[in-house]
Amino acid sequence: MSISWVTVGTPLPSGPVRLAVTDLGVAACSFAGESVAGVPGRAGTPDCTDEARARTVAARLDEYFQGRSRTFALPIDWRFTSGPHRVVLQTLLAEVPYGATITYGELARRSGVFDDLAGVGGVAARAVGQMMGANPLALLVPCHRVVAADGLGGFGGGPLGMEIKRWLLTLEGVLPATLDWDGPDAAP
Q: If we measure between CA atoms, which residue out of 73, 97, 99, 75 comes closest to residue 22?
């Protein structure tokens, strides 16, 4: 099954996002043109030529970023996840809605993947943190909603990644608006 990429302009601090699409759905998301581990997408990977599919992906992201939709309503192709990683990501998608957050430890508990580690302090939470860092479907499977017990936690991409996480959590109303941005309702 072939993979092609759709580039969508966003108001994120990172600029456009690139989404890998297949006949089954969206398989990966890349911020700031970075590659996604294990996902073909470097120079030479074709852009999506299915205009209807590309328009649909762009429209769903635009609705989210404009505050008109709380879900992306796009099919997901889970091909770049498997085993416990997939279970944790599917738990996140199913149980943590727009405007909510969950701690790494609570997501570990809810997923059931780490039941053998019950009582082993922090190991499961750290494992979930690593899984969020390796989430090929960032944005659509909202790892920005997973936070540390004592703060925001991390987000891939270093300082830019943290700006993206803060921006998304502000959009969703989890964090208060900043002095220079009041959220999607403030758009002209």
A: 75
- Hey, where are the domains in the chain? 4-65, 83-171
| pLDDT score for 184 | 62
Distance CA 122, CA 31 (A): 29
**Residue pointed to by tokens 């998301």:** 29
Please tell me which residue in 27, 92, 108, 143 is annotated as part of the active site: 143
Q: Which residue has the tokens 């991390």?
A: 154
- How high is the pLDDT of residue 120? 59
CA-to-CA distance for 144 and 146, rounded, in angstroms?
5
pLDDT of residue 2: 84
Q: What is the pTM for the complete model shown?
A: 0.89
Residue 99 parent element (H or E): none
- Contacts for 100 with CB less than 8 Å, ≥ 6 apart: 145, 174
Give the CATH fold of the 83-171 domain. Arc Repressor Mutant, subunit A (1.10.10)
Q: Report how far residue 60's alpha carbon sits from residue 48's, in angstroms, rounded to the nearest whole number.
A: 16
Q: Is 143 a catalytic residue?
A: yes
